Amino acid sequence: MYRVQNITQAYSQAPWRKQLQWIGLFMLALIIVAMVAGIYLSVSAQASTAGREIQIMYAEMEEIRRNIEDMESQIAYLVSNSEMEKRAEELGFLPVESDEIFYILVPGYIKSGQANLAEPPGSTLPVIPTISPEYTQSLMDWLSERVFDPASPLVQEVEP
Amino acid sequence: MNNQSSWRYTTLGILLTALAVFIVVQMLRIQLSPQAGALRDKGELYSGAWRTLTPARGQIYDRWGNLLAGSRTVYEVGVILGEVENPSTIALAMNAVVDADYDAVFAAASTEPSAEAIYATLARFVTEEQKQRLEQLSVEMKTAYGDRRDPSRPSLAGITFDPRLQRSYPEKDLASNILGFVNWEGQGFFGVEEKFNDELAGSPKRVWVPFDPNRVEEFPQVPEGTSLILTIDRVIQAEVEQIVENAIKESGSESATIVVMDPKTGDILAAATSPRLDLNEFWRYGEIFEDSTPFNRVVSETYEPGSVYKVLTMAAAIDGGAVKPKTSFLDTGSIEVGGTIIRNWNGGAWGPQDMLGCMQHSLNVCLAWVATELGANKFYQYMQDFGVGHLTGVDMAGESSGRLKLPGDEDWYEADLGTNAFGQGVAVTPIQMVMAVSALANEGQMVFPRIVLSMINGGRQYNTSPRISGTPISPKTAQRLTDMLATSLEVESSVALVEGYRVAGKTGTAEIPTPFGYTSNQTNASFVGWGPLDDPRFLVYVWLEKPTTSPWGSVVAAPVFRQVVERLVVLMNIPTDQMKEQLLTGQ
Q: Is ipTM > 0.90 here?
């Protein structure tokens, strides 16, 4: 008992030990702060990268949309009435006259009177968010989800 | 640590603390100052930008799904004024590549940059190929002259390209009068583009786009504009436009208009008129449509129809019980109605005639008598039932209602009954005449002309239905008049007849009124006809304005009708009457 008291007294009284204690505590605090800052920076950098990628993807989407419209117009130019007529003439076709046509009766055949350009009703998918929750969820949201709904998948799939 | 060092450290500590306190106080002062809100707003303004998400304009197709109006990428070329090094090079390059005016580009690129002048537009509608050429030039200049900032060095520095979707018309001037056009700002003018501008354009949305990628949010869904499928058949339209061109040349007319409609559904299969405009060059509108030339005569221009109007008068009289096809009339060459003497087109007397003869010889005197037999009230009621003087409601912008003076109107006189009976003193549009005559071709039922067959919105296609406007005459009257008109064409061996097909029709020649009366030699020549009579599939209206080779509809308009029908029966797969009978009887 005496020995323990002696050591405690000696230890507490030694000024360099006291100093070391403070330095240790300060270093510990510094390491914790550095770790938190590091984690914050890492998460923040990831979020920024993801955000930037989203911005780039939106720009790409816009470009792709423009390209689709361009392509449709180009196809339409290539198959326009005047172009088709020109090609037909080059291939040696001639406009048909009424007395050159032979008609036959096809029982049950009903000619469609117009184009159907849209998909049939009922096959369209509902509009859902396209950004995965990982990009929008906060750390607290994610933690509470893990705690209160641990069965939910870690990565949620979304339809494009 | 001695006392002197201690003093220094204490002073430094006080100074740093004071600085920290000053900073904190200053922060608090700014935060709590009256300008704090404005400063916050300004900060927010620089943190992102408002952006308008404009949906792609809906497309327009013909009835078989051929694209008539789509979109393509074009570029607005501009300069960031602060980055311009050599305005002369920019002007030279723009002039060489996009044919822009050198002086205008030089002046724009030489503008001194300021808070108000940051950017200047140099050219619009620049194509992808032109843009690539400019970019290539820029790279070549950098390679040849380096990229140091030097005003004497040839450089395209500062030039920018802003891509955007612009309306594109793959068929160029085909159906241009029906479609209308869209200007640089995305506003539709004339035709379907104007009438359905809001639907085609969709609803743009303004969104705040933060520059900070951490604050990026999902863009809202912007539904595309509604697409339209028209009733037009592009092949028929092209053929009819060609016939219009030929008719103008052959008859020396000022303009020509032809409308082809399915009399059962009201579907306008073709509506061709002149002049036409390559819609990809809409800025040439003023050059092509000089003075007050209407963009689409089919719906916009009213005129006195002349003798084609007699089919309506005779239909009304037979339906109203005033006359029968065999009713006889002694034509003495003139008749007085309301104090005005009405004479025949040749000024002659045609002697005893039945109603078939009156129509066959297009006798003004007889038709004026028929109208008086029917009575003014009944006559005008029938004309209103035929839709004369009313808008048809066809889905094209700029429709005129025409004019039908009615008893009781300040400018209506009793004499008008006699002149209106043969299409004088009444103003109609071609589309009105087509709609009115559809009652004769469709067993008494008059159909609304329609140009939009379907709308596509949100991935769904919504088809429109044919609509009956009314039943101004009975099916029996329609049949009687159709027979009369077919017989009259056959008896006089009209040039409108088409071999193998029985058609009904009527010519028209109307004098054009001047401020001093009917003093001009100029006429409106027209023809309205339909067929095949056992199952009408087409109704064709031809109108030639001021023909010079001959003033008569029977000479210049009737052959045009035949030409149209000869192509229609091929393009619409209509077998001859004889072949149809053989197919049905199996012989």
A: no
